Amino acid sequence: MEKQYILSVLVRNHEGVLVRIAGLLSRRFFNIVSIVAAQTENPAITQIIIVVQGNERVIDQVQVQLDKLVDILNVKVLDRDTSVIREHLLIKVRAQLHQIGPLVDVANMFKASILDVTNDTVILELTGDNHTLDSFIAVLKPYHTIKMIRTGCSAMARGEEE
Predict the structure, then answer these.
(1) Contact 51, 152 (CB under 8 A)
(2) Which residue from 47, 120, 121, 136 has the least number of CB within 10 angstroms?
(3) What pTM, to 2 d.p., does this model score?
């Protein structure tokens, strides 16, 4: 059965490592849903969170292929039940002055921030899980989305070690 798997990949922070990883996955026709890379508490190490669509055989193959790369330090499939998973959303919607009150109510309901207001647009920001962001976007439908930018997921295993 196909589903989305979240891989936490620790790599040496060297030039081109992200390109090599993306190239390896695309050459093997793995379905990449998102890739997020960021420096860790150690500037020499980058953590890359990769969300891959597939079955258990596919995710096993992804792990094997990634482990072959020189700069890879660790590859782990994160368990959704024992990890904290978040995405970030910026969304610009059309809103007239009389719509600002209801829009503030929606933002408060989701604990979203209003970052910018002009005569006819509002930019909102929300961080949460996939379901929360999807729900927020759906509630904002009547306001006409002008632009939306959504990150891939960031994830971290709970507890002491990852």
Answers:
(1) yes
(2) 120
(3) 0.83
